[in-house]
Amino acid sequence: MTHAEIRRLEPQPVWKNFADLNAVPRASKHEEQVIAFMKAFGENLKLETFVDEVGNVIIRKPATPGLEDRKMVVLQSHLDMVHQKNNNTQFDFAKEGIKMKIEGDWVKAEGTTLGADNGMGVATIMALLESTTIPHPAIEALFTIDEETGMTGAMGLKPRVLKGAILLNLDTEEDDEIGVGCAGGIDITATRNYRQEETEPGKTGYRLTVNGLQGGHSGMDIIKGLGNANKLLNRFLTDSFENYGLRISEIDGGGLRNAIPREATAIFCIDSVHAEAFQADVAELAEAIKAEYQNLEPNLNIALEATNLPEVVMELGVQEGFIKAMQAVWNGVYRMSPDIENLVETSNNVARVRVAGGAIEVLCLTRSSVESSRTDLANTVRSAFELTGCEVHFSGAYPGWKPNMNSPILKVLVDKYKKINNHEPHVAACHAGLECGILGQNYPEMDMVSFGPTIRGAHSPDERVSISSVQKFWTFVLEILKDIPKA
Fold first, then answer.
1. Least CB-packed of 15, 51, 371, 419 within 10 Å?
2. What is the pLDDT of residue 241?
3. Is 80 a catalytic residue?
4. Quick one: how many helices (H) and strands (E) in the chain?
5. pTM given for the model
6. Which of the following is catalytic: 31, 117, 146, 147?
7. Same fold, 2-182+401-482 and 191-398
8. What are the residue boundaries of the structural domains of the chain, listed by start?
């Protein structure tokens, strides 16, 4: 019933298409179904539609009468979405459509990410493509793939494929913001093998779980200082191997690089003789950490429970180095921009930690709007792990997007926003990675801006989009398309 209610929300053309899109599985790097869906959408409208060699879908629609003399506009959003769910949510992202619900002014999902990032942008473009009444210049819809885990769609788009002169990226998450710049990023992967040893007698097994954290977008939300489950978990391990003979068997924490980790679990054992003192110390530290985060993370949960004694543990020398590396590695804001107020310049997210079966793997995402600062932090992260014998690999680097405050299309958007809303928009760069910087490498003359409806909690199961904001955003889009500069 709720999905039928969502389809009746205004503007109906946008919500109808969003519901259709959310019925299609579309994980990053697994976009086969949504590519086929979008290709069929364009072809059914009898519009020029094609898929490029990496999987981006391009659909072109001619100008409506009276606007043929305007510059062609590229409307761009990405097809993939972050797949995250709560541990207690039973859901198969590969087979099921997102289950949505309405809570007040918000649409959200039931225990999973919603896909409003960037599904609302995709649905808006779909609504424009299928309309027979909305005035607009010639439109080139660009639906990219794999934005969330490497931006390989934008990177793979060849020069001269696009014909448009102006690009409107619909992937910003504050409806009063016009984006003119963003951070670049680089993936960092630290790995090491270790010898597994049989667990010695006289030990007691435990499982320590950190969960209930907000998580969120590792770019947009990193400034909030939210808890990182991987780093919090490591605080309990740091001294325990010396004081209580702690030996690690397994660690499983976090998920995607661009999501602040909400949950982490460690399985380990300690000397049985110290069990009472260990439990008291864990309880004391848990209360201290909860007090630190009481305003930021009110639902933080730290649970210690006895479990079966693990059969094997990590060799002691590697364990000591790993714990110290995890304590040393930088997480969070590294440097604020000296040029733009309240903008994070450089940050790192310790996103994924996996220790099991004789192998360590730690995944990080370092972001920065300044390439030299990004390199500095990436080398800082590398050093922490290499000092303990890990191999560290950099991959997936993508550039930032340098602001152009003299952009003609920016002036159009600012003027339109003020006229519609009677106040100034917030023109800003963001710490997230947008595809504009990458697209700008092959299309350096293209005039670009980014905007969108208000979305909260992106990349987490608390993701939600404001219904009233979508109405505001839709009105803004329609007004912009009426006033695109002449060619």
1. 419
2. 67
3. yes
4. 13, 23
5. 0.78
6. 147
7. no
8. 2-182+401-482, 191-398
92 annotated active-site: no
The pLDDT value given to residue 132: 96
How high is the mean pLDDT in each 10-residue block of the chain (487 residues)? 87 98 95 98 98 98 97 98 90 94 96 97 98 98 94 95 98 95 94 97 97 94 97 92 89 94 97 95 96 97 97 96 97 93 94 98 96 96 97 93 92 97 94 91 95 94 97 98 96
* Cα 39 versus chain centre, distance: 25
Residue closest to 451 by CA, chosen among 126, 134, 75, 9: 75
Quote the strand ranges of 380-452, DSSP E.
391-398, 426-429, 447-450
**Measured CA angle at 484 (ends 482, 486), to 5 deg:** 120
Torsions phi, psi for 15 (to 5 deg)? -70, -35
The candidate with the shortest Cα–Cα distance to 421, out of 178, 120, 180, is 178
Q: Which residues contact 242 (CB under 8 A, 6 or more apart)?
A: none
Q: Which residues pair with 59 in a beta bridge?
A: 49, 141
Could you give the CA distance from residue 426 to residue 428 in angstroms, rounded to a whole number?
6
CB neighbours (10 Å) of residue 317?
A: 12
Distance from CA of residue 194 to its chain's centroid?
31
Give the right CATH number for 191-398 from 3.30.70.360, 3.30.1390.20, 1.10.10.60, 3.90.940.20.
3.30.70.360
Show the tokens assigned to 119: 């599904």
Q: What are phi and psi of 169, to 5 degrees?
A: -90, 120
